[in-house]
Amino acid sequence: MKDLCKDDISYTQNRELSWLRFNQRVLEEAQDPGVPLYERLKFVSIFESNLDEFFMIRVGSLTDIALMKEEHVDNKSGWTAERQLTEIFKAVAPLYKKRDKAFSEVENALCGFGVARCEPDALTGADKKFLDKYFVNYVLPVLSPQVIDMHHPFPHLANNVLHVMLRIKSGGRTALGIIPVPQALPSMVFLDGAGVRYVLTEEILMAYASQVFGKCEIEAAAVIKVTRNADISPEDESFDVDGDYLTHMKKVLKKRGRLAPVRLEIQGGLPDDLVEELCGRLRIGRAQVYHSHAPLKMGYVFSLADKLPEGFKITYPDFSPQPSPMVSRNGPMLPQILRRDILLHFPYESMDPFLRLLREAAADPSVVSIKITIYRLASTSKIIGYLTEAAENGKDVTALLELRARFDEENNINWAERLEEAGCTVAYGIEGFKVHSKICLITRQNGGDIQYITQIGTGNYNEKTAKQYTDLSLMTADPDIGADAAGFFKNMLIGNLEGEYNHLLVAPSGLKKGILNLIDGEIMKVKAGGEGEIFMKLNSLTDRDVLTRLSEASRAGVRIRLLVRGICCLLPGIEGKTENIEVHSVVGRYLEHARIYCFGKGAERRFYIGSADLMTRNTEKRVEIASPVLDAGLRQRLVDILETQWHDNVKARVMQPDGRYKKPGGAEYNPVDCQQFFIDEAVKNASRPVPAPVPPAA
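The chain above was modelled as a monomer; its predicted structure follows.
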């Protein structure tokens, strides 16, 4: 296949297999005895939901490509779409066995703490009577069972919806029966008595199936789930140019549940001939069928949190984001930011200073406008409240809201309607380019002068994920950055993707170019007899141009350290190609989400933080922003963050030249858990004297 690919693939790997290795690292957290038991169960659930999305999007996309007449070859592996699908299906099968083993071990251990998933057939006495009554009164009335025969066609199996599939026998004849698990029902029901005991709804249907179909004999039964291609693009759907884009998006979303199947999961036993029949009806191959002992939908795990017994150490110790040591808790935010740049580190530090800034701006008579990009918001958002309040106070509020944020489309549609009702200007991005940047610009009149307060972040304006994801938020009154931000919003509102900026790196026109130039700068230092260094923290690294340039830098002698949580298509330690490159990955209690780009050594280091991973979709198909960090103290803080993560030997894994990962050594002598370090640091910093309030700005 090498001759089909123009690029050197000797030091790169397929992105899909790299992602599967990332999800395997998630599963390793479920297998780690050092992780509290309930948290291990949550990691099994996260592994499962990650895999769902992977099949819906990545496998769905490759399936579409494989159907095209035009041949597509992956420029990291040289594989066609068909070859990639074959390798994916082969790599996923062992993960199911590892998932089942991890799930079984955790469930068995949780039983010792009184937390147990109960099988309906094993219940007796009062528990059995309760479940009988619950089924008759609450479950049976909402069921829609169906027999499949010549008069009853095989139904559409909606995406990611559980069904109980049965072979039933009545009067000497056999037929298929199917019971959709009603989404109106809770995913589980709790039993009375000591401990936390519960029964899953799909397992109730399995146990009572004979009552659903009358006097039929149940010959075989299993829970099944079909995963469908959800890689639907609004740009691929016909759109009336005189119509409403909001309405168009609502129509697009309805199509997602009816696209082609890409996977069938089976929990329980079905005979081979029935599995073959299902494959035929769904038009998938046996390689796309996965058998599971664990439940097929594990979102229920998060509902257990409020019912867990106290006194047992089966969850992480409580931690709440702490006040930032840079911020006075008593004084207004505006004068503090005018005095110096402020950097917040989530989830160790609270998002509250940014929320306070928005709240103050909404009421400040000198503030004339607030502009913000929105990609994902919490289901209950204070930020929307402050924006609508600002608009009601007569300020010009503009929200560049991305309706195409995958799986958050409906939520964003609802927020868009609310913002419009409040009098905000709402724009929906640019055709063909998702707006993924995280930037907020507050413009203030100070006498005859204009003041800009700019916030640029690595994560979404989401109060919930700010407590779960590690992210950075920079707030600055730097006039040059503010002028670039003002130019950015102007360009976005007129659809100009080729805008020029003096300080900000903006995709799709300037981010990749800027990163490549910075890499070239380190190469030139080495060629001039100096030292070159690159240190980056990302979620994913796949952009072919960046991969090639990093290999060139390695060959020139530049030291390159990469902290890449998820996909990394660059293989380190390949002789003559990447021997000066090291790759670490950290998967822990919090999802590592911050993007930091560092170039150079010592006082000459140049730092940027931003919203973009170095993936082709980010550098070429999205609107992204990276901002320089100019304050010397903040630059040193970024160094400390990067170095602490790099020396993690508890949650980190080190990539090998073959793309596999192994644990670093030394944890038995001096364990370094970077996330726990930052928790301890935040608690210690919060106990220090609070900075004195800064007088209000003139």
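The chain is about 35% helix and 20% strand.
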